[in-house]
Design brief:
Length: about 260
Amino acid sequence: MARRYDSRTTTFSPEGRLYQVEYAMEAVGHAATCLGILANDGVVLAVERRNTINSLLDESFGSEKIYRLGSDAACSVAGITSDANVLTSHLRLIAQRYEFTYQESIPVEQLVRSVCDMKQKYTQTGGLRPFGVSLLYMGWDTRYGFQLYQSDPSGNYGGWKAACIGHNHAAAVSLLKQEYKDAGCSIKEALHLAVKVLSKTLDINKLTAEKIQVATLTRQGDRTMIKVLSIADTNKLIAEYEIEAKRIEDEKKAASSSKA
């Protein structure tokens, strides 16, 4: 049945489905994991790096996983990288035009909505295909402070306290629901939670700094600071998580042995 209605993005199936949009979302589901956590004093993005499996790759010319969009916003992507490059270039152009016109950074939701309008157009116009990429956006503006948004290939978007896209996103979201506190968390706690979630959901034996990339968005005075953590800082985070995980495991073993 699907084959009769999936040749064009503008054709609905009898069940009211747009199969090409669903196929685009499926492509995102097989992509590298991207995780975002909103803290009280900042935002964290953590992404899986899959290109490290090829020892011949020159990392100085490698593709980005976290893109700076303007003075107060950045994003990470999951899906087809070439599609992501088109969308991030569009986002940067919108942000620069707004800043040139009004001499201030564009509100984060307005930036997200502008690119989602473009993504929605590609689901309603003949001869085009949807962008096979989802994005996580982190940003700050004077009205709403720190914000985290997610958008998908259909053009839908929403604000989140914590979100995950890409491979194993369902398991990551389930863990975030258990671990994320309703009162929020500090940027340091968000970093530790991101490492914990990735270590439990990525299909790797041991989490290392070469396999993930972490970025933070914070405020220092009247400036927004977007920082991609170095290999040394990421290794330190992972080491702290492993020490804490071992301590909790030892406590569980001690408690079980005392009961026995």
